[in-house]
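re: that complex we talked abt at group meeting.

here r the seqs, copy pasted straight from the sheet so there may be weird spacing, ignore it
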Amino acid sequence: MNGYNNKYLLINLNNYSYEIHPLPENILTNFIGGTGLSSYLLYKYSSFNSDSFSPDNPLIFSSSLLTGTKLTTTSKFAITTKSPLTNFIGDSMSSSHFADKLKKTGFDALVIIGKSKSNKIIKIQNSSIEFIDATKIWGKTTNETERILNQNLGNDFSFACIGPAGENLVRFAGIKNDSGRMAARTGVGAVMGSKLIKAIAIHGTQEINIANQSELNVIRKELSLKSLSDSTEKYRTTGTTINMSILNRLGMLPTNNFKQSVFKEAKNIEGENLLKNHYSKKAHCANCTIGCEKIFITNDDDNQTESRLEFQTTASLGSNIGVSNPNWIIRAANLCDELGMDTISTGVTIGWAIEASEKGHLNSSIKINSENSLLDLIKKIAYRDSIGDLLADGTKLASESIGQDSANYAMHVKGLEIPSYDPRNLPALSLALSVSTKGACHNRASAYDIDFNNKEIFNDPTIIASKTKTSEDYSAILDSMIWCKFLRKSFNNFYDETSEIYSLITGVKYNSENLKKVGERINNIKKLFNIKNGWIRSDDNLPERLLNSKNQIMSHSYLNSMIDNYYHFRGWDKNGNIPISKLNELNLNTKEYASKNTI
Amino acid sequence: MIQIKIKIEFFGRARMILGFNSFEITVNKAITKEELIYLIAIKYPKLIGEIIEENKSNLKKSYNIGINGIKNPSENELNLKNNDCILIFSSQAGG
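got the structure back, here u go
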C-alpha cells in the first residue's frame, strides 16, 4: 500500500532475535498508524493480566501514514504499552527527526517484547539490527546519553532514550528524543527500563511511495500557509504558558493539589511574565511550520538554565505545589527532562505528598519551601531514594500504600495523574478524563474545547456525552494519521480534507465516513484491551475531591449521568462493556479477535 | 439611555501589547459586541490588526470575548449589567 512500508519489526529481547512481519492492507486501513496501529499491535502481542513490568508486556513504537510526507506537523510517532501507572493501555506521543527516521528504516512500527539480560542499546539501520552494550551510558541523564550516542554513532542517527527515572522504574518515566522532545505520559520510559533498554538508535534511508505526489505537493503548500494563519496564532506567538492567566481568572487553575482553583501568586508564573522576563528562544519540531516550542531561561544566577515550558509544566510544578518562582520551575522542568520524568505526574504526585505530609498520613515531612527542597525531592523520586521510592509509584499506588483517606485527594484517574485544567466546572473535560482508556489525559479527547466554546450546554449530559464521544473519535484520527493537535483549527473540514490527503498518499479512495469509523474502532480496541485487563465501570471516575465541592457543576450524579449517556452513544451496555454486535460493526470481531473477545 | 460601568480585562498577547491588565469604562447598557470592540479599538489602536480586525468591529478569529467568565456571547447582543467584566483572551485551547 502506498504511503507505508507495509511491514513492522518484531524484536524479542529474550534471545536478541528479530523478525519482519507484513502489515496487511486491511490492518492499515482499519487502524491507519500512530496510536491506532500501535493499539492494534499491543492487543495482538499482549498476554493480558500480566504485570506491566513483565517481559511479556510489548513496547511499541509506531510512525504513521503522514510521517515522512513533509506535510507540516507530521513528523510524529506514538509509543504504546501497558502502563505501569494504570495497568491499562498507555500511550504517549512525541515528535521530530526520530519519527522520520523510524519510518525510513523501512518499518511502520517497532514491537519490542521480552527482556534483555544486560543493559543494551538497540541500533536499527534500515533492516540491520544490532544490540549494543549500554553499560557505559547506564545511569546517564537523557541529554548526556544523546550526546554520547551522537558522538559514537554520528549525526545520521536519531535517538530515543530513557534517563535515570526510566532505569529505576519510576512509573511516570518518559522516553526522550531529539534533545528536547519527550513521550512523557503513562510511564512508557519505565517499561523501556524494565526491558533494560537504555536507548534506541535509528537511521533509515528508505523513501515511501506516494500515489499522487504532485497533488499532495499542492496541498502541502496550502496547509503550510494555513498553519501560519490566525488559527494557530497563540501557539506561534506566545506558546501555551499564557493559559495560566485566563484559567486562574476563570477559577480553573489547579492549586495546592486541586484544593483550590485560584492561585493568588499566579502573576509571577503566568506566561505573560515568563515571556517578558525569561524568554530565550523559539524552537520547532522537524517539518513543523508552527513552532510552538518556547524555551525559557533562568535570570537569578550565572549558570543560566534553559528549559522548554508548556502550560501543563508551569502549573503542575507551579500552582499545584504552591510554587510561584519562575526560576525554580525552569530548573525543576529541566531536571525532570534530564532525569526523564513526566512533569505533570511529577507535580501532581508532589502535590499529593505535600498534603499527605500536612495531614500526618506520611511519616516524612514534605515541604516545598525552597528551590533545593523541590529539586531534591525530584531527584529522590528519580532515584527511588527514601520517600522518593513511594512517590515513584505515582499517586494511586502511593495512596493505596499509605491508606487512611489519602486516596480521596490522590488526583488521578485510573492511576494517571490529572493535567492542569480543573475539571470541576468543565463537564465535557470531566467526562473525557473519567472515561479515557489511558486515564486522566487531556489530549485523547481535547474535550476542554467543547467546554470553552459551548457554555450553553453545560447542564445537558446528553449533548455533552455525544460531543465528547465525537471529539474522542476525532482525536483518535489526529493521533493515528498523525497530525499535531495545534494544527486542527487550520482545516476548513477536517474529515474531508484528511480523507482526500489519505487518498492522495495511498491511492485508495477514502471518505469522511471511513475515517470516522476508524476513530471509533481505535477507541473500541483500546477499551477492549482494558476490559481484557480487568476494567470495570467504577474505573471510569474522578477523585472524590472533584465531586463534592460547593459551587461547581460536577457531582457524582452528574458525572454518572454523563457516563450513562456516553456509553449509550458508544453503543456499549450500561456497564460499559462492548456488545458483540458493536465489535462486528467495527470489524473487530474477525477470527483473530473472536477467540479472545467474548465479553 | 442607561449608562453602566464595566471592566475590560486582557489576557495573553493583548495584555502584552498594552502592558496592563484591565481598564474600566462607562458604556450604554444596550451596547452591542461590535460597538464595544469598536470602542476598545479606538481607545487602544495598537490592538488593531493584532487582536482586533482591521474593521475595528470584530475580534480576530483567534480571540474570544467572555462575560464574567460565565458565558461567551455568540450573538451581537451582550445584555450587560453594571460592574460586568469583559474578558478578552485567546480562543485557542490546549497546551
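couple things i noticed - Chain B is about 20% helix and 25% strand. The CA atoms of residues 6 and 25 of chain B lie 6 Å apart.
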